[in-house]
Amino acid sequence: MDRPRFRPQFLHPRYWALWLGLGLLWLVTLLPYRVQLGLGRLLGALMLRVAGSRRGIARRNLELCFPELSSSERARLLKENFASTGIAFFEMAMSWWWPRERLARLSHIEGLEHLQKAQADGRGVILMALHFTNLEIGAALLGQVHTIDGMYREHKNALFDFIQRRGRERHNLDATAIEREDVRAMLKVLRAGRAIWYAPDQDYGRKQSIFVPLFGIEAATVTATTKFARLGRAIVLPFTQRRLEDGSGYRLVIHPPLEDFPGESEEADCLRINQWVEAAIRECPEQYLWAHRRFKTRPEGAPRLY
Protein backbone atom coordinates (compact mmCIF):
# COMPACT_ATOMS: atom_id res chain seq x y z
CA MET A 1 0.00 0.00 0.00
CA ASP A 2 1.06 3.60 -0.60
CA ARG A 3 2.33 5.68 2.30
CA PRO A 4 -0.40 7.66 4.10
CA ARG A 5 -0.70 11.24 2.87
CA PHE A 6 -2.36 14.29 4.39
CA ARG A 7 -5.46 15.42 2.49
CA PRO A 8 -7.04 18.89 2.56
CA GLN A 9 -10.37 17.27 3.41
CA PHE A 10 -9.00 16.51 6.89
CA LEU A 11 -9.48 20.23 7.70
CA HIS A 12 -13.25 19.96 7.18
CA PRO A 13 -15.34 20.81 10.29
CA ARG A 14 -16.58 17.22 10.54
CA TYR A 15 -13.07 16.25 11.68
CA TRP A 16 -12.62 19.06 14.22
CA ALA A 17 -13.85 17.01 17.18
CA LEU A 18 -11.39 14.25 16.33
CA TRP A 19 -8.56 16.77 15.92
CA LEU A 20 -9.41 18.13 19.38
CA GLY A 21 -9.41 14.67 20.94
CA LEU A 22 -6.11 13.74 19.28
CA GLY A 23 -4.59 17.04 20.39
CA LEU A 24 -5.55 16.39 24.01
CA LEU A 25 -4.16 12.87 23.78
CA TRP A 26 -0.90 14.25 22.37
CA LEU A 27 -0.64 16.65 25.33
CA VAL A 28 -1.04 13.75 27.74
CA THR A 29 1.92 11.96 26.11
CA LEU A 30 4.16 14.77 27.35
CA LEU A 31 3.62 13.56 30.92
CA PRO A 32 5.94 11.02 32.59
CA TYR A 33 5.33 7.39 31.69
CA ARG A 34 4.22 6.33 35.17
CA VAL A 35 1.72 9.21 35.30
CA GLN A 36 0.22 7.98 32.04
CA LEU A 37 -0.06 4.48 33.49
CA GLY A 38 -2.02 5.93 36.40
CA LEU A 39 -4.29 7.93 34.11
CA GLY A 40 -4.87 4.80 32.07
CA ARG A 41 -5.99 2.88 35.13
CA LEU A 42 -8.43 5.67 35.97
CA LEU A 43 -9.77 5.59 32.42
CA GLY A 44 -10.13 1.82 32.67
CA ALA A 45 -12.13 2.16 35.90
CA LEU A 46 -14.46 4.60 34.14
CA MET A 47 -14.82 2.26 31.16
CA LEU A 48 -15.68 -0.60 33.50
CA ARG A 49 -18.63 1.43 34.75
CA VAL A 50 -19.97 2.77 31.45
CA ALA A 51 -19.03 0.19 28.79
CA GLY A 52 -21.87 -2.19 29.59
CA SER A 53 -21.78 -4.40 26.49
CA ARG A 54 -17.99 -4.79 26.44
CA ARG A 55 -17.96 -5.41 30.18
CA GLY A 56 -20.53 -8.15 29.70
CA ILE A 57 -18.51 -9.81 26.91
CA ALA A 58 -15.30 -9.71 28.94
CA ARG A 59 -17.02 -11.05 32.05
CA ARG A 60 -18.56 -13.90 30.04
CA ASN A 61 -15.22 -14.80 28.46
CA LEU A 62 -13.60 -14.98 31.89
CA GLU A 63 -16.42 -17.23 33.11
CA LEU A 64 -15.92 -19.53 30.12
CA CYS A 65 -12.13 -19.65 30.22
CA PHE A 66 -11.51 -19.62 33.98
CA PRO A 67 -14.32 -21.63 35.59
CA GLU A 68 -11.89 -22.72 38.31
CA LEU A 69 -11.69 -19.16 39.66
CA SER A 70 -14.14 -17.86 42.23
CA SER A 71 -16.53 -15.05 41.28
CA SER A 72 -14.49 -12.58 43.36
CA GLU A 73 -11.26 -13.66 41.65
CA ARG A 74 -12.83 -13.18 38.22
CA ALA A 75 -14.15 -9.78 39.31
CA ARG A 76 -10.63 -8.71 40.26
CA LEU A 77 -9.30 -10.02 36.96
CA LEU A 78 -12.01 -8.11 35.08
CA LYS A 79 -11.08 -4.90 36.92
CA GLU A 80 -7.40 -5.36 36.07
CA ASN A 81 -8.27 -6.12 32.47
CA PHE A 82 -10.18 -2.87 32.07
CA ALA A 83 -7.30 -1.01 33.73
CA SER A 84 -5.00 -2.54 31.09
CA THR A 85 -7.42 -1.51 28.35
CA GLY A 86 -7.45 2.06 29.65
CA ILE A 87 -3.65 2.15 29.68
CA ALA A 88 -3.68 0.91 26.08
CA PHE A 89 -5.11 4.24 24.87
CA PHE A 90 -2.06 6.07 26.18
CA GLU A 91 0.29 3.34 24.92
CA MET A 92 -1.18 3.86 21.47
CA ALA A 93 -0.43 7.58 21.70
CA MET A 94 3.10 6.92 22.98
CA SER A 95 3.82 4.62 20.07
CA TRP A 96 2.53 7.19 17.58
CA TRP A 97 4.12 10.36 18.95
CA TRP A 98 6.91 9.75 21.45
CA PRO A 99 10.45 10.40 20.19
CA ARG A 100 12.03 7.14 19.14
CA GLU A 101 14.76 7.42 21.77
CA ARG A 102 12.26 7.89 24.59
CA LEU A 103 10.18 4.96 23.42
CA ALA A 104 13.20 2.68 23.05
CA ARG A 105 14.01 3.04 26.74
CA LEU A 106 10.89 1.00 27.54
CA SER A 107 11.99 -1.95 25.40
CA HIS A 108 13.25 -5.27 26.77
CA ILE A 109 13.52 -7.65 23.81
CA GLU A 110 14.47 -11.33 23.98
CA GLY A 111 14.94 -13.75 21.11
CA LEU A 112 15.75 -11.21 18.39
CA GLU A 113 18.34 -13.66 17.08
CA HIS A 114 15.53 -15.86 15.73
CA LEU A 115 14.35 -13.06 13.44
CA GLN A 116 17.89 -12.19 12.44
CA LYS A 117 18.72 -15.79 11.56
CA ALA A 118 15.61 -16.12 9.41
CA GLN A 119 16.55 -12.92 7.61
CA ALA A 120 20.10 -14.16 7.05
CA ASP A 121 18.72 -17.44 5.67
CA GLY A 122 16.31 -15.62 3.38
CA ARG A 123 13.31 -17.21 5.08
CA GLY A 124 9.97 -15.48 5.44
CA VAL A 125 8.60 -15.23 8.98
CA ILE A 126 5.08 -15.35 10.32
CA LEU A 127 5.42 -13.52 13.62
CA MET A 128 2.53 -15.24 15.38
CA ALA A 129 1.18 -12.78 17.92
CA LEU A 130 -1.86 -12.33 20.15
CA HIS A 131 -4.35 -9.53 20.68
CA PHE A 132 -3.01 -8.24 23.96
CA THR A 133 -4.22 -4.79 24.96
CA ASN A 134 -0.67 -3.46 24.57
CA LEU A 135 -0.16 -4.79 21.05
CA GLU A 136 0.22 -1.29 19.54
CA ILE A 137 3.24 -0.31 21.60
CA GLY A 138 4.70 -3.81 21.40
CA ALA A 139 4.67 -3.71 17.61
CA ALA A 140 6.23 -0.23 17.67
CA LEU A 141 9.06 -1.32 19.96
CA LEU A 142 9.85 -4.36 17.86
CA GLY A 143 9.61 -2.30 14.68
CA GLN A 144 12.41 -0.07 15.94
CA VAL A 145 14.92 -2.92 15.75
CA HIS A 146 13.63 -5.06 12.89
CA THR A 147 11.38 -4.41 9.90
CA ILE A 148 7.99 -6.01 10.45
CA ASP A 149 5.21 -5.91 7.87
CA GLY A 150 1.67 -5.95 9.20
CA MET A 151 -1.81 -7.10 8.32
CA TYR A 152 -4.00 -4.02 7.97
CA ARG A 153 -7.69 -3.16 7.94
CA GLU A 154 -8.65 0.34 6.85
CA HIS A 155 -10.43 2.41 9.50
CA LYS A 156 -13.80 3.89 8.57
CA ASN A 157 -12.72 7.37 9.66
CA ALA A 158 -10.25 8.63 7.03
CA LEU A 159 -8.46 11.03 9.38
CA PHE A 160 -8.01 8.45 12.12
CA ASP A 161 -6.79 5.99 9.50
CA PHE A 162 -4.18 8.53 8.34
CA ILE A 163 -2.96 9.27 11.87
CA GLN A 164 -2.87 5.59 12.79
CA ARG A 165 -0.95 4.46 9.73
CA ARG A 166 1.53 7.33 9.92
CA GLY A 167 2.12 6.62 13.60
CA ARG A 168 2.68 2.93 12.98
CA GLU A 169 4.83 3.17 9.89
CA ARG A 170 7.27 5.73 11.31
CA HIS A 171 8.97 2.86 13.15
CA ASN A 172 9.28 0.77 9.96
CA LEU A 173 10.26 3.07 7.12
CA ASP A 174 10.40 0.22 4.60
CA ALA A 175 7.52 -1.78 6.06
CA THR A 176 4.50 -2.87 4.04
CA ALA A 177 0.90 -2.55 5.19
CA ILE A 178 -1.02 -5.49 3.75
CA GLU A 179 -4.79 -5.57 3.49
CA ARG A 180 -6.11 -8.42 5.61
CA GLU A 181 -7.84 -10.05 2.63
CA ASP A 182 -4.89 -9.67 0.22
CA VAL A 183 -3.50 -13.20 0.32
CA ARG A 184 -1.32 -12.71 -2.76
CA ALA A 185 0.50 -9.77 -1.19
CA MET A 186 0.95 -11.75 2.02
CA LEU A 187 2.57 -14.66 0.19
CA LYS A 188 4.70 -12.32 -1.93
CA VAL A 189 6.37 -10.66 1.04
CA LEU A 190 6.87 -14.00 2.81
CA ARG A 191 8.58 -15.48 -0.23
CA ALA A 192 10.77 -12.36 -0.35
CA GLY A 193 12.11 -13.29 3.09
CA ARG A 194 10.26 -10.65 5.10
CA ALA A 195 8.53 -10.90 8.49
CA ILE A 196 4.80 -10.33 8.97
CA TRP A 197 2.94 -9.68 12.24
CA TYR A 198 -0.07 -12.00 12.27
CA ALA A 199 -2.52 -12.89 15.05
CA PRO A 200 -4.70 -16.02 14.61
CA ASP A 201 -6.45 -15.77 18.00
CA GLN A 202 -9.78 -14.15 17.10
CA ASP A 203 -13.10 -15.42 15.75
CA TYR A 204 -13.26 -14.56 12.04
CA GLY A 205 -16.37 -16.61 11.35
CA ARG A 206 -17.06 -20.04 9.96
CA LYS A 207 -15.42 -19.46 6.56
CA GLN A 208 -11.91 -20.91 6.37
CA SER A 209 -12.07 -21.93 10.04
CA ILE A 210 -12.31 -25.25 11.81
CA PHE A 211 -13.39 -26.04 15.37
CA VAL A 212 -10.72 -27.06 17.83
CA PRO A 213 -10.60 -26.62 21.63
CA LEU A 214 -9.48 -23.39 23.28
CA PHE A 215 -9.80 -23.28 27.06
CA GLY A 216 -11.82 -26.49 26.68
CA ILE A 217 -14.35 -24.86 24.33
CA GLU A 218 -14.73 -25.68 20.65
CA ALA A 219 -13.56 -22.45 18.99
CA ALA A 220 -13.65 -21.42 15.32
CA THR A 221 -9.96 -21.21 14.47
CA VAL A 222 -8.57 -19.91 11.18
CA THR A 223 -6.45 -22.29 9.14
CA ALA A 224 -4.59 -19.43 7.45
CA THR A 225 -1.43 -19.85 9.54
CA THR A 226 -0.89 -23.28 8.00
CA LYS A 227 -1.64 -22.07 4.47
CA PHE A 228 0.62 -19.03 4.75
CA ALA A 229 3.49 -21.05 6.17
CA ARG A 230 3.22 -23.71 3.47
CA LEU A 231 2.60 -21.48 0.43
CA GLY A 232 4.90 -18.71 1.63
CA ARG A 233 7.67 -21.17 2.53
CA ALA A 234 7.88 -19.40 5.88
CA ILE A 235 8.69 -20.30 9.46
CA VAL A 236 6.42 -19.43 12.38
CA LEU A 237 7.92 -17.52 15.31
CA PRO A 238 5.55 -17.12 18.28
CA PHE A 239 5.70 -13.61 19.72
CA THR A 240 4.51 -12.43 23.14
CA GLN A 241 4.59 -9.08 24.88
CA ARG A 242 3.90 -7.98 28.42
CA ARG A 243 3.68 -4.71 30.32
CA LEU A 244 6.03 -5.02 33.27
CA GLU A 245 4.52 -4.51 36.71
CA ASP A 246 7.43 -2.42 37.98
CA GLY A 247 6.73 0.30 35.41
CA SER A 248 10.04 -0.21 33.59
CA GLY A 249 8.46 -0.90 30.21
CA TYR A 250 7.67 -4.00 28.17
CA ARG A 251 9.08 -7.49 27.82
CA LEU A 252 8.92 -8.68 24.22
CA VAL A 253 9.80 -12.30 23.53
CA ILE A 254 10.39 -13.80 20.09
CA HIS A 255 10.19 -17.52 20.74
CA PRO A 256 12.03 -20.23 18.77
CA PRO A 257 10.35 -21.32 15.53
CA LEU A 258 7.67 -23.96 15.67
CA GLU A 259 9.23 -27.26 14.68
CA ASP A 260 7.64 -29.49 12.02
CA PHE A 261 5.12 -26.81 11.08
CA PRO A 262 2.96 -27.18 9.06
CA GLY A 263 2.19 -30.60 10.45
CA GLU A 264 0.14 -33.57 9.37
CA SER A 265 -3.17 -31.72 9.10
CA GLU A 266 -4.75 -28.31 9.47
CA GLU A 267 -6.69 -29.58 12.47
CA ALA A 268 -3.48 -30.64 14.24
CA ASP A 269 -1.87 -27.29 13.43
CA CYS A 270 -4.87 -25.31 14.72
CA LEU A 271 -4.95 -27.35 17.90
CA ARG A 272 -1.26 -26.73 18.42
CA ILE A 273 -1.74 -22.99 17.86
CA ASN A 274 -4.67 -22.82 20.29
CA GLN A 275 -2.67 -24.66 22.92
CA TRP A 276 0.07 -22.07 22.56
CA VAL A 277 -2.48 -19.23 22.63
CA GLU A 278 -4.03 -20.56 25.82
CA ALA A 279 -0.66 -20.99 27.53
CA ALA A 280 0.43 -17.47 26.56
CA ILE A 281 -2.82 -15.93 27.82
CA ARG A 282 -2.63 -17.81 31.12
CA GLU A 283 0.76 -16.20 31.78
CA CYS A 284 -0.78 -12.72 31.68
CA PRO A 285 -4.60 -12.91 31.51
CA GLU A 286 -5.19 -9.38 32.77
CA GLN A 287 -3.52 -7.89 29.67
CA TYR A 288 -5.45 -9.90 27.07
CA LEU A 289 -8.27 -8.43 24.94
CA TRP A 290 -11.24 -10.18 26.58
CA ALA A 291 -13.81 -7.76 25.11
CA HIS A 292 -13.78 -9.73 21.83
CA ARG A 293 -16.49 -12.39 21.40
CA ARG A 294 -14.01 -15.19 20.78
CA PHE A 295 -16.63 -17.96 20.92
CA LYS A 296 -19.35 -16.24 18.87
CA THR A 297 -19.25 -18.77 16.02
CA ARG A 298 -20.54 -22.10 17.25
CA PRO A 299 -20.54 -25.66 15.85
CA GLU A 300 -23.80 -26.76 14.25
CA GLY A 301 -26.41 -27.33 16.93
CA ALA A 302 -24.31 -25.90 19.78
CA PRO A 303 -25.95 -23.30 22.05
CA ARG A 304 -24.94 -19.65 21.87
CA LEU A 305 -22.50 -18.51 24.54
CA TYR A 306 -23.23 -14.76 24.49
Automatic annotation (TrEMBL):
It is an enzyme of class 2 (transferase). It is a single-pass membrane protein. The chain crosses the membrane at residues 15-33. Keywords: Acyltransferase, Cell inner membrane, Cell membrane, Lipopolysaccharide biosynthesis, Membrane, Transferase, Transmembrane, Transmembrane helix. GO terms for biological process: Kdo2-lipid A biosynthetic process; lipid A biosynthetic process; lipopolysaccharide biosynthetic process. GO terms for cellular component: plasma membrane. Pathway: Bacterial outer membrane biogenesis; lipopolysaccharide biosynthesis; Glycolipid biosynthesis; KDO(2)-lipid A biosynthesis; KDO(2)-lipid A from CMP-3-deoxy-D-manno-octulosonate and lipid IV(A): step 3/4. It is found in: Cell inner membrane. The keyword Acyltransferase applies. It catalyses: an alpha-Kdo-(2->4)-alpha-Kdo-(2->6)-lipid IVA + a fatty acyl-[ACP] = an alpha-Kdo-(2->4)-alpha-Kdo-(2->6)-(acyl)-lipid IVA + holo-[ACP]. It comes from the Bacteria. GO terms for molecular function: Kdo2-lipid IVA acyltransferase activity. A motif (HXXXXD motif) lies at residues 131-136. Its EC number is 2.3.1.241. The keyword DNA-binding does not apply. Its main location: membrane. Catalyzes the transfer of an acyl chain from an acyl-[acyl-carrier-protein] (ACP) to a Kdo(2)-lipid IV(A) to form a Kdo(2)-(acyl)-lipid IV(A). Belongs to the LpxL/LpxM/LpxP family. This is Lipid A biosynthesis acyltransferase. The lineage of its organism: Bacteria, Pseudomonadati, Pseudomonadota, Gammaproteobacteria, Pseudomonadales.
